[in-house]
Design a protein that fits this description.
The protein has about 375 residues and is of the alpha/beta class. The protein has 2 domains: about 5-270, Acetylglutamate kinase-like (Carbamate kinase, 3-Layer(aba) Sandwich); about 280-370, Archaeosine Trna-guanine Transglycosylase, Chain: A, domain 4 (Roll), CATH 2.30.130.10. It has helices at about 20, 30-45, 60-65, 75-100, 110-115, 115-130, 155-165, 200-205, 220-230, 245-250, 265-275, 285-295, 335-340, 350-355; strands at about 10-15, 50-55, 105-110, 135-140, 170-175, 195, 235-240, 255-260, 280-285, 305, 315-320, 325-330, 365-370. The strands form 2 sheets. Strands 3-4-2-1-5-7-8-6 form an 8-stranded mixed sheet, with helices on both faces. A 5-stranded mixed sheet has the order 10-9-11-12-13, sandwiched between helices. A hairpin with a 5-residue loop joins strand 11 and strand 12. The protein is globular and about 70 Å long.
Length: about 375
Amino acid sequence: MVAINNISEASRIVVKVGSALVTRNDGSINEEFLDSIASDLLLLHKNNKEIIIVSSGAISLGNKINKKNKENLSLSESQAASAIGQIELINGWKKSLERKNLNIAQILITADDTENRKRYLNARSTFEELLKNNYIPIINENDTVATSEIRYGDNDRLAARVAGMLSADCLVLLSNIEGLFPKDPRHGKSALIKEINEINEDIISMAGEANGLGSGGMITKLEAAKICMSSGSNMIIASGNNKNPLTSIQRGGNCTWFNPEKSIKNSLKVWLSGQLKPGGKIFLDRGAGNALLDGKSLLSAGILSIDGDFDKGDTLVIFNNKNLEIARGLSNYGSEDLNKIIGKKSEEIKDILGYMDKPEVIHRNNLVYSGKKEN
């Protein structure tokens, strides 16, 4: 996957659609929007593009049917609303796309489905089979079974995880704003930022007020951009209020374009870099942190402390001596055993634990880097 200049150059595209586009102000399905984007999807399909849709809107539709106020719903009330509204949501997509002779399939997933490596791979196989048979998967978070602790809470990061999972060339986030602005454009003039190569503190600070975009807001869109850029996918934030919004982007319409990192990651490292709920944390001394970023494996001698209750094989976030995240990786030891060998040399592990499965706490092949060396 490489940087592209237009979605017409992409072979596989994930499109995330926000609740404010799929539903009207009264909470009913927005058939005009669905018909408009269906025309875009038909054109892309005719040009041999593979399309995956991530669609919000089930809870809003369910609240309309169930006559509930969306504000201050409990988790169980939101889950019930989602169960009711999901039927109308998928039927709305089905009617609009079938009028264009486009076939769809429904997939509901939870955060845990992409955090667990085995489920992640299984879900990817399902997607690939559907795409091979010319189906457009319509995805939503499975709110009815996701718990408050593990749910995505927004479909922006879900879409980014799907884009990484499927090695998509591009993720398009359609909402009710044209892209990222330095200041909220509703409160005065502000120039659209058209291209971003790095998510730094200056960019993150711009997300403060420029939201009002459903459950996620602009900050979750930037978090999605981090996942996409790290996994090698391009990402676009654009307005879905334009007629034929995807065609509008192709023709040069306003949007913010996020370019992917230049380094290429394998499938395992794409999965690692996008993890939303790692099992724990490891804090390193300066020497171990720099050695790690030089491409070395992580050894127990350089570990200062750990945090979390995790098992062997879980994903850990690794911090340097300044508490900055520098990498993520799969641990060869659970937290109980790792606590016993912190600061110890590799040759001491067997005497301490009574066994030594691996000399490294995390092997370099199971690491993905996100930081820079300290001088």
